[in-house]
Amino acid sequence: MAAGYAGGVPKGVTAIRIDRSESKGSVGSARGLLVIYLVILALIGFWPTPVDRAAGSFLLWLGRVVPMLSYTHLEFGANVLLFVPLGLLVTRMLRVHRYLSVVVGLLASVGIELVQWLALPARTPSLYDVLANTLGACLGLLIALWWERGRAHSNGAADR
């Protein structure tokens, strides 16, 4: 071995371990989950009647009893939550330009609302839905980045 080297690493240099365990397997599992999620999203988005129809009277009652839980607030929150998985999964699949997961969420939401407007007369398309869905995709992006940062930090701590 050359002078100054111990175990193949130059003396005074800290070895950096590269964790490749997330690369292919993580993207593959994200892809599989995305397919399942998209089927569920299509069923919800393109169902001929509102998916909350059965709960409508309860939700209106709840809004009267607890004004903070009005139908409008609950629907907006549900639309945000509905698109969090899309933002999260698309972000996990992208290695560069990860912000595009928000654009994917926006385009998916606009597509769903257009189909509801053009082909589903019992559904009510709304720009508020597009806003909420896009916020959900953005939240999914932020959660994915936060998760990965935490994992990188814990992996770095384990290497010390």
Automatic annotation (TrEMBL):
Q: Where are the transmembrane segments?
A: 30-48, 68-90, 99-120, 126-147
Which segments constitute the VanZ-like domain? Answer: 35-147
Annotated keywords? Membrane, Transmembrane, Transmembrane helix
Under what name is this protein listed?
VanZ like protein
The answer to whether UniProt assigns keyword Transmembrane to this entry is yes
